[in-house]
Specification:
This is GlxA family transcriptional regulator. The protein is an alpha/beta fold. It has 14 helices and 11 strands.
Length: 312
């Protein structure tokens, strides 16, 4: 299956260190975008293991029990996501802090999700770094750890440390990492899978004015999948010439507006094929194809199977 700009096919391994009282919401917003990226790309771009300090099952704040794949002491890999969430002050004993210091030699980067930043700071692993934390704890965090440059941000990436302010921001952070490492186009598709109409804007916080033009164009495209506009019309609606929009999209997404628009329409077709019993002829109309055969040919070229084969 063709993907616009997946830069490396080698899987990236995540360790997710859970503590009693972790947030289901934070965990889902961390893992589900990675799973979706694997599904959309058709490749194992990301792998993850749930970890704990003692291998015993860990129970979330709402009662969900997770059995870890391994203990932190026996694991190593790429990013280590530290996720204590609620009750984090009860987890800062010497055993936890020593385990985190040891893990810092085997994982990179270290990622403090939600209140995970507190444990990393208490272990001395955020000294001289910019960092954020759940905003309810930001003032206490800044007072308790003056050697950390505490900032009120959704997430901060500073060298080999990443900190994130909460469950909703976790989704934005993972989309940011997907875009950085696997391409903006894949991040767009992941966002579209979860948030449909607003997906074009969902991972664009802090984007440059030029990038905001692309995001507005993507939003216009998503709003006109059933009756596609010409690229000239899309450009006009965002206040640009067609040539300017084409240049900007190639720079940001590595693909022409025509290719991006076609992929958005085919993504909708794949969703309808996979999740409904709507006839292929009607799906074609909903995705802006007057001829079902034309959609089937494009669908097979993009996804390696016809709509009917995918349903089977």
């Amino acid at each position: 299956m063709h993907n616009w700009s997946i830069q490396s096919a080698a899987p990236q391994h995540f360790g997710v260190l859970l503590f009693e009282g972790f947030s289901n919401h934070c965990l889902a917003n961390t893992i589900e975008p990675l799973r979706a990226a694997n599904m959309i790309s058709g490749k194992p771009l990301y792998e993850w293991k749930f970890l704990s300090l003692d291998r015993h099952p860990v129970t979330s704040s709402s009662g969900l029990q997770v059995t870890p794949h391994a203990t932190l002491a026996t694991a190593s890999g790429g990013p280590l996501i530290v996720m204590p969430s609620y009750g984090f002050l009860n987890h800062g004993g010497w055993r936890t802090l020593a385990a985190l210091r040891s893990a810092a030699k085997r994982f990179s980067p270290l990622v403090g999700m939600d209140t995970g930043s507190w444990l990393l700071a208490e272990a001395g692993l955020l000294d001289q770094y910019q960092a954020t934390i759940h905003w309810e704890e930001l003032t206490n965090f800044a007072e308790r750890f003056p050697e950390v440059d505490a900032q009120r941000e959704r997430f901060i990436e500073d060298r080999d440390r990443i900190t994130c302010s909460g469950a909703m921001a976790a989704f934005d952070l993972i989309l940011h990492l997907i875009a950085r490492d696997r391409g903006q186009a894949l991040a767009l598709e992941v966002a579209q899978l979860f948030m449909t109409r607003d997906s074009a804007r969902s991972h664009a916080r802090g984007a440059s004015p030029k990038s905001r033009v692309v995001n507005r164009a993507l939003a216009v495209m998503q709003e006109h999948l059933e009756e596609p506009l010409t690229i000239k019309d899309v450009a006009s609606r965002v206040g640009r010439t067609q040539k300017s929009l084409e240049s900007r999209m190639l720079a940001d997404l590595g693909a022409t507006p025509q290719k991006v628009y076609g992929r958005l329409r085919l993504n909708l077709a794949r969703k309808l094929v996979s999740e409904t019993d709507i006839p292929v002829s009607e799906i074609a109309l909903r995705c802006g194809y007057l001829n079902p055969s034309a959609m089937t040919r494009a669908f097979k070229s993009e996804f390696g199977a016809t709509p009917r084969e995918l349903r089977q």
